[in-house]
Amino acid sequence: MTATVGIRVAEGEADLALVRAVRREVFVVEQNVPEELEYDEYDATSVHLLAVGADGAALGTGRLIFGEQALKLTGGVEGRVLLGRLAVVRAARGTGLGAELVRAIEAAAVERGAVELELHAQVQALGFYERLGYVAEGSVYEDAGIPHRTMTRVL
């Protein structure tokens, strides 16, 4: 990836609009996820990471669910948080940006006291996450019509 891409915590309505635009492009348009499933009640309390190019264009995003919401979603595992909605626009794929976003989310998790991270990977992305140290557990399940598998990594 080039040094002209920056990753930051999304703050303010302008950043959140860019986050939503990336997720809409990748999940709703490309993968046909129903829009009403893409945006949920966890968006309001999550930490959203945003990758932008030198021109200000949004290139990728991901979110971190932590605290009480993470306890609820991970089955009550203390110290475990949830990475979700990782998305990189087509033009930025294959540049290493996805891995950089994962590492930035991991760093944000550690800052919030997390010791383990869980994610729900699309089956086609299992290899990507395995290369970053994540281990698949459990069986394949459907989410928004797409096969997924839970993965975890100790931070």
Automatic annotation (TrEMBL):
<keyword id="KW-0808">Transferase</keyword>
<dbReference type="InterPro" id="IPR050832">
    <property type="entry name" value="Bact_Acetyltransf"/>
</dbReference>
<protein>
    <submittedName>
        <fullName>GNAT family N-acetyltransferase</fullName>
    </submittedName>
</protein>
<dbReference type="GO" id="GO:0016747">
    <property type="term" value="F:acyltransferase activity, transferring groups other than amino-acyl groups"/>
</dbReference>
<keyword id="KW-0012">Acyltransferase</keyword>
<dbReference type="InterPro" id="IPR000182">
    <property type="entry name" value="GNAT_dom"/>
</dbReference>
<dbReference type="Pfam" id="PF13673">
    <property type="entry name" value="Acetyltransf_10"/>
</dbReference>
<dbReference type="InterPro" id="IPR016181">
    <property type="entry name" value="Acyl_CoA_acyltransferase"/>
</dbReference>
<feature type="domain" description="N-acetyltransferase">
    <location>
        <begin position="5"/>
        <end position="155"/>
    </location>
</feature>
